[in-house]
Amino acid sequence: MAERNYAKPLRVEDLASVAQMGVSTLHHHFRSLTAMSPLQYQKQLRLHTARVRMLTDGMDARVQPSGRL
After folding, report:
1. 45, 5 contact by CB (below 8 A)
2. pLDDT confidence tier of residue 55, bands split at 50, 70 and 90
């Protein structure tokens, strides 16, 4: 769910519901598997995707979407 919907706002309650767990149980299991919280994991996915896009498209971090520096 997190990988498919990384760009959307993440509600931990929804993720816990899909996993059929309580929120605290989900946090515990998620952190034990990934060493980060669900929100930290989502942020890492977003940053990784942005990095890949920048490398693929040859973009520079200084370039704004409008193309100005």
Report:
1. no
2. confident
